[in-house]
Specification:
Oligomer: single chain
Mean pLDDT: 87
CATH topology of one domain: Cytochrome Bc1 Complex, Chain D, domain 2
Number of strands: 0
Number of helices: 5
CATH architecture of one domain: Orthogonal Bundle
Shape: elongated
Helix content: 55-70%
CATH class of one domain: Mainly Alpha
Order of helices and strands: HHHHH
Largest sheet: none
CATH superfamily of one domain: Cytochrome c-like domain
Strand content: under 5%
Amino acid sequence: MRRTLGIATLVLALPLAAAAQLKTITLPPDHPYGDLKPGPGVEVTQRACRACHSTDYIVMQPRGDAKQWEAVLTKMIKVFGASISDEDAKAIVGYLSTVYGK
């Protein structure tokens, strides 16, 4: 009985040990279409936005002024939970409205 219990414990523990191993995936690189244009604030924009999605989503957005980009960024923070500081948000809106503005 003890041996059966020990074997049963081992059989149940193996899948848990396998699941606990660190798994990584390598995504393909973004398409060059999604490369952000250079400009002040591009680095913070890439870092903050790529944490959740590719930059393709940025370059495909309708062009807009600072008010429009601020609304998009607010949605990303409040609806989707993007972790972006007020300082970074200001830099991102400045970059997007300048480089991808009307």
